[in-house]
Amino acid sequence: MKISDIRATTVAVPLEAPLRHSNGAHWGRFVRTIVEVEADNGLVGLGEMGGGGESAEAAFRALSPYLVGHDPFELEALRFKIANPTASLYNNRVQLLAAIEFACLDLIGQQFGVPVYDLLGGKVRDTVPFASYLFYRYPDPRHGAAEVRTPEQLAAHAVALKRAHGFTVHKFKGGLYPPEYELECYRALAAALPEDLLRYDPNGVLSLAEGIRFGKAIEGLNNDYLEDPVFGLEAMREVRGRVRVPLATNTVVVNFEQLASNVLRRSADVVLLDTTFWGGIRPCLKAASVCETFHLGVSVHSSGELGIQLATMLHLGAVLPNLTYAADAHYHHLMDDVIVGGRFRYRDGRIAVPETPGLGVRLDRDKVAEYAELYRELGPYPYDRDPSRPGWYPLVPNDRWDDPAAELAPID
């Protein structure tokens, strides 16, 4: 089996409402590039990549000379062909490699008639647990979505998601408003969901002093972990030494050199493995084995996935014996998907692992066409900007907080 063609299509799939985060916003949609890798036996493998609100079609087209004629089974050769570590200083293609690895594993699974999890050692669980993902958000009357800005609104939103999907772990994406205000929001979540586990993630924008103060202030709550309160391994290590809450990261341990540093001088207790950031499912599996050896906790990170990447997260979660924390997912914020059968469904806060060959998902061509047209209509958006604050950008550590008293108007 040899690769004969690669195709890329950019889609924009609507969100229930625009989501705000410490560095900007998701402007009411996820922009994703869908990758199809066709083999000379007629099989087609699927991949997916984000890109901060932008298309990656041109980047994938440029890889066609590297891929045509390549054997999808030769995944280690593929890694060095596309993302050689020295060449990557100039043309970092790790996320491109990830999308193509997804597609190659999908091809191999289809060729043998087995799910991807069987190629990775076999599953140890049939369903993968997920945390809710709670954002401040703009209102969107088109979808009946109210704003989330106040502690009361945040708590009500979390309770509604729990009722709808069965979540018992809740991740609060902060870093937008002053830390003392977000502490009030976090405490409101704890009061509204006293039996559930909580996570706070300001994406590393707090100062060292603020990170320590926030961590100490929440020590008495039912914390799952505190994720990236500050930026950098050294700053995380300082917070970890002074706060009695497990620290997690998806920003400062995203490759094996950083993982080695974290093993030698621990900064984070939990590593969130992202199938895109790490360059594919297989590198995440390797990293999880290192974490198991050194007793680091493992979760699965979300980078704004549609159903193809969610399938990669499910196959990864299925095979990890040391998946000690519920996975992340933006997925419940989506209004639709581009896969046959529509969106995956949560049951009791979990999603079932696909059982059909390969990744277990196929493209709904009508949906792909619909959301490719929507992308052409709306175009890209800057992930690292907020539509209500033109010209704003954050510092790290940040002191350019938004005003929590300012009500949010709908955005186009």
Quick structural summary:
The chain is an alpha/beta fold. The protein has helices spanning 57-62, 64-67, 75-83, 94-112, 116-119, 151-165, 179-192, 208-217, 233-242, 256-264, 281-293, 307-319, 365-378, and strands spanning 3-14, 19-21, 24-26, 29-39, 44-49, 127-129, 132-137, 169-173, 197-201, 223-227, 247-249, 270-273, 297-300, 350-352.
**Please, what is the average pLDDT?**
97
The outline comes out as: globular
Question: How would a textbook summarize the main sheet?
Answer: 9 strands, mixed
Strand content range: 15-25%
Helix-strand category: alpha/beta
Radius of gyration using CA atoms only: 21 Å
Total helical segments: 13
Number of domains: 2
Main sheet: strand order: 3-2-7-8-9-10-11-12-13
Query: For the record, what is the CATH homologous superfamily label of the largest domain?
Result: Enolase-like C-terminal domain
Task: Tell me the distance between the termini.
Answer: 46 Å
CATH top level class name of the largest domain = Alpha Beta
Helix content: 25-40%
- CATH domain fold name of the largest domain: TIM Barrel
CATH architecture identity of the largest domain: Alpha-Beta Barrel
